[in-house]
Inverse folding.
């Protein structure tokens, strides 16, 4: 099965449940493949981790999946593979059934110190859901979060309303009280912390440059002045590559505390938000990065990518044009701009960029895609 990785260009998204991102990259290399950071027309396989956010019930990640599927519809040969299938390919398939709901309501009430009537009310409010009166470990985490919020002065109906709002801000979120850190700023405001970035349930972004302490994490200190900006940036990039998004964001925020105009910090915050599927936040960070340093073509390309994934085709076209104004030989920029122009119904303009891409990258698998769009024979 490992032959399936031979010469494959593999991108990972979501946190892997079975191994670190770096270990997964090493296994790809050992089996003849090449790990790549982002989904693009060069990607041949997207491996979706079973931990992290945002998860759909079948374990796929919604926004990244849509990007891969859009490229596949354009003719790019991208396979979308869940983590268990990837493990089978490298001979590491997990064994044993997944744990189910095994904690009875009586035990939940005893452990968490709540009454059966309270638990029943929360069920009726659809804050939690048992299966025949039994709960799993994630349910216990959710119930504990609700209990803490109620003790902090937030009414259950306000919690339920906030979670409904989150469903529109963060589509695809399956268990917000487990997957997010939810806390009360005051009785009228519920905030969530996702990867070290805070926002309200209505989607208002709230950057915290204070560096508040956390119970867990690999950072040795939250005092940004204890390290240099470059050190924090390197630490953040390392955490980003490992899928340690909360730690990565802490490090990038430390960079911004030292240097508020650090385009690389904003760019990498955009990467983290994009990886987690929070495209509106990724767009804000990428946009800030290119405003500070407009001469980085790849940053313009990333901004265009998240705009395109959100259906903002016109804005994506403008951003791709900015990327090509900076770097006319940016092959991926020509390829993606051509796709956007065709989507917007501008076929003649698209042809110009298909030809430009073929001139710059004639030997790639994606060259065949460009030829199909131009109706050029594949062997020409």
């Amino acid at each position: 099965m490992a032959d399936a990785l031979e010469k494959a260009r593999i991108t990972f998204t979501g946190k892997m449940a079975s191994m670190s991102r770096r270990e997964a990259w090493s296994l790809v290399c050992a089996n003849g493949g090449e790990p790549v950071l982002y989904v693009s027309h060069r990607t041949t396989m997207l491996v979706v981790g079973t931990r992290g956010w945002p998860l759909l019930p079948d374990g796929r990640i919604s926004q990244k999946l849509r990007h891969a599927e859009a490229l596949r519809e354009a003719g790019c040969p991208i396979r979308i593979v869940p983590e268990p299938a990837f493990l089978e390919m490298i001979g590491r398939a997990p064994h044993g059934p997944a744990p189910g709901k095994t904690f009875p309501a009586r035990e939940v009430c005893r452990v968490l110190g709540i009454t059966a009537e309270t638990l029943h009310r929360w069920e009726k409010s659809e804050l939690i859901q048992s299966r025949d009166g039994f709960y799993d470990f994630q349910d216990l985490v959710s119930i504990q979060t609700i209990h803490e919020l109620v003790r902090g002065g937030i009414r259950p109906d306000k919690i339920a309303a906030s979670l409904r709002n989150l469903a529109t801000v963060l589509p695809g979120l399956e268990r917000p009280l487990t997957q997010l850190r939810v806390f009360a700023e005051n009785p009228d405001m519920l905030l969530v912390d996702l990867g070290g970035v805070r926002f309200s349930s209505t989607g208002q972004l709230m950057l915290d440059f204070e560096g508040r302490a956390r119970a867990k994490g690999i950072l040795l200190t939250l005092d940004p002045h204890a390290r240099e900006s470059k050190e924090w940036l390197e630490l953040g990039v390392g955490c980003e590559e490992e899928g340690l998004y909360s730690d990565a964001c802490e490090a990038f925020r430390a960079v911004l505390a030292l240097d508020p105009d650090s385009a690389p910090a904003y760019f990498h915050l955009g990467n983290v938000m994009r990886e987690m599927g929070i495209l509106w936040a990724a767009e804000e960070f990428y946009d800030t990065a290119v405003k500070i340093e407009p001469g980085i073509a790849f940053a313009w390309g990333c901004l265009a990518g998240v705009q395109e994934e959100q259906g903002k085709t016109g804005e994506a076209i403008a951003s791709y044009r900015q990327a090509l104004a900076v770097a006319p030989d940016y092959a991926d920029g020509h390829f993606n701009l051509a796709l956007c122009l065709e989507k917007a119904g501008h076929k003649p303009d698209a042809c110009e960029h298909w030809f430009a891409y073929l001139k710059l990258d004639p030997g790639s698998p994606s060259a065949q895609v460009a030829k199909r769009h131009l109706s050029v024979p594949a062997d020409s």
